[in-house]
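tool_log.txt
---
The assistant was asked to compare two proteins side by side. It first ran the structure predictor on the initial sequence, then on the second. Raw inputs and outputs are pasted verbatim so the downstream comparison step can read them without reformatting.
(1)
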Amino acid sequence: MPDLFRLLFLILLTLVFAGAVQGQVVRHGNCSVDAEIWSLPQCALEAKDGHLYVGKPYLSLFFPAEKSRLAGRMIPGGGWAYFNKLGLIVVRNVANFDNGPSPFHHGLVRVVEKNKWGLADSNGQLIVPLKYDGMLEFEEANRGWRVCAGCRTVSSGEYGWFEGGDWIWLDRHGNVVSKAEAPIAPGKSPGK
């Protein structure tokens, strides 16, 4: 009988600690937030002093480690956004990248609003104004972002790309550094 008691105790202990790992759900009142779902429900957001916040009860889902400074999620009516440990939504209109928010590179992230592209810092300040017609993700090999003026968005199914226009490179600080080659569209060969 003591062995059965110990076994039941170990199972119960395992269940208690398993509930505290990533992927948990936090319920507060009638609102439920799942850490594995990229989209936050409206009920998880609060407006305070003219700013939008993720409610305090849900923050532990997104900041399990001290090294995380910002977390990214889809907010209702606002697309992708980053928020800080206080829940303050600091960067809005974050560009989509690989079914998630575009990541930061050298302290900057791609943002898009009304089909115009720019770069914002981790405080939400526009470092590069929303003036470009397209912008690709940061390229380490070229140490910058490739942006275009006059290009257009083309899509096929879930994939999209930019065609046409004049292309330039922006450095890690968002400054124009040189002309750039237009990217090769999916399914096309270089030079065609």
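(2)
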Amino acid sequence: MPNGDKVLVTGGAGFVGSHLVDKLVERGFAVTVLDNMSTGALANVSQHIGNRNFRLARGDVRNALRVREETKHSKVVFHLAAIADVQQSVRYPVHTNEVNVLGTLNLLEACRNKDVDLMVYASSCAVYGDAGREKTCEDHTLEPLSPYAASKLAAENYCLAFHRTYGVPVVCLRFFNIYGPRQNLGPYAGVVARFVQRLLRNQPPIIFGDGKQSRDFVNVKDALKACLLSLERKKAVGKAINVGSGRATTISDLARLLIHLTHRIHIRPIHRLAREGEVRHSLASISRARQVLGYWPTISLKKGLQQYLEWSRKSASQP
């Protein structure tokens, strides 16, 4: 894609979206962010305010008219806006469906009618359900365990159906557990953010379940590589592609590593009952990502956590 082309990023004021916006602006694209700011933060994109290649549009993907308007002049759409929390989806399944499924359908309709060159959809490893300890490839059985997972799979299926039916050029990236700077520290924060937040307050991390459940943690910088590679690799169109590290880490091991990195060796985790809708194990096969995108993760978990801790300490010290 030539620099200067217009790109729409839904959810672009959020954790992953704002990092993507940074990279796109840096590369010279004209970026519009569509975000309702329910979980996004103005601080994540404030450095771009005043840049002629950046525009922030406050709006909701459930509003079809607004979506059509913001898609009108875009060559590429990165769709990251979503309800991204399992427990929130368990409490509010209808709202989750409206945002994650109807919102995606609105984007697809707009892309179909405006001849957008590419739509990249941020899917989730949650579509696999509990896939076991082995590496999960993209043709694995899909058995979502939560309303969140079901909504991401439904939206992904709409993306692939619009590609097959209407020729909408779509890439579905199934992200595994992304972590890194700007990760939400609110009530629906990811496990890395929650553990770090408590440890920096000299509080024990809370593990839901026995801690033997495992996740594939991928640094946000590596996740961004997959997004940007999608712009260049036409053979990725029409495919679902795992984006992870290809390494599994148990939640107990994650807690131990963070306890070591924060020098809180006197602290022991607290265990509570496992939560509804949570999968037991999640691990990506990234063979397709290597073959189709040329993707390869480069940031180790230890290095990535050290970077996240540096950012967290700096953020905590700011007024």
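---
observation on (2): The mean pLDDT is 93. The domain at 6-179+218-245+286-298 is CATH 3.40.50.720 (Rossmann fold).
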